[in-house]
Amino acid sequence: MNNIPKLFINIGDLEICLIAGYSDDQSSFEILEKLILPIEGIIENKITDLDIIANLIKKNILSIEQKVNYTFKDIIVILNNLEISFLNLCGYKKLNGAQISKENITYILNSLKSCVDEFEKNKKILHIFNSEYCLDKKKLDNLPIGLFGDFYSHELSFNLINKNDYKNLEKIFNKCNLRIKKLLLESFVKGSLINGDNPEIDTFFYIQIESKNSKIFYVENNAIKYEQKFNFGTEIIVNDICKITYLEIDSVKNIISENQNIYKTSDKDFLEEKYFINQQYRKIKKNFIAKIAEARIDELSEKFYLKNINLKKLLQETDVIFLEISDQQHLSCFHHAYEVSFAFNNKYKVKIIKKPVIEQIINKADNIVQFGWKKEAIPVTNPKKSLIARVFQEIFR
């Protein structure tokens, strides 16, 4: 076991999670302390008050440091709150029958990174992924170093964060006497978890539906290439049921929590009187509730997927959808509707999964930080040579 503890922070939409622990010899992370805090100072994916969020984090980090008897110098950040953009670029090399060398690939990688740095001056690169290798129009699974060909193309996926957002994060942690050791996109970590559990699947969509918001991201060849957020979630279904049935919101929530797979009910099954809180009893069929939910879930599935113009090209690349519903009671009640709606007449394979717990996220993030990710590309910077070194190079070339 590594005796030096590590500090992680997961910044989500509604809460911040601080975790300290050790990496053991089996690549597992042992948690020593965990604190979950309501989020403050971040509104609608923007940092709005540095001092509020810095003081909140600092106070709780001090509490963790006292408990583990260690002063942290750096922190690993897992981000699921600020705006992230994605850019996919392709570089190429004419080979004319020659062999592909490591230098060829390094040149392409550095050239594409330079293009991003030049044209996206207000953004910072978080991750770079090798998303596709193609030799003489044939896609390859691995880097083709050593192979011969005429034309080689190499696609990279860049995940970018606004530089001001990154600087604000740095300021926040500087106020806590910490530096950012690594910043990981939570979607990247979740995509890595999926591949770990399903090694045969490397290209898929992941749809995450929370109460008030949702997100879809796309992974291709184990490289995250796209992400989009939505300002609606399961709450919209509850509101629909309230409007149509005139039931109170607490009544609808009770119905959802107490009726697993409501689609199995018959036309003769009516809501019990207990659900009419401070209201006169009315005969409402349970499967009518199911039909209301089904109509809205159909609409949501199309907004996420089929009618999403941003995914027009990507829809042709995979038929696999991983669907995460954070509210398990909601999922138990309307499981059938989600399964059917997102399958689009069995055109897509829907795999409904549980929301990963924070321990799974941290363990995978720690593994990525320690050992890297198979598809992540790292640009190579050639160090500047001294005058004497350049002179000797010219003499002995």
Short description:
With 397 residues, the chain is of the alpha/beta class.
Helix/strand/pairing category: alpha/beta
Q: Count the E strands.
A: 16
**Which consecutive residue ranges, at least 5 long each, have pLDDT under 50?**
380-397
Oligomer: single chain
- Total number of helical segments? 10
Major sheet details: 5 strands, mixed
Main-sheet strand order equals 3-2-1-6-11
Radius of gyration: 25 Å
Query: What best-fitting shape do the alpha-carbon axes yield?
Result: globular
What proportion of the residues form beta strands (DSSP E)?
25-35%
Share of helix, binned? 25-40%
Features:
397 residues; alpha/beta; 10 helices; 28% strand; disordered C terminus
What does this structure look like?
It contains ten helices and 16 strands. With 397 residues, it is α/β, with parallel strands linked by helices. It starts with 5 loop residues before the first strand and ends with a helix. Residues 380-397 have low confidence and may be disordered. A hairpin with a 2-residue loop joins β4 and β5 (46-47). Strands 3-2-1-6-11 form a five-stranded mixed sheet. It has a five-stranded mixed sheet with strand order 14-13-12-15-16, sandwiched between helices. Strands 7-10-8-9 form a four-stranded antiparallel sheet. 32% of the residues are buried.
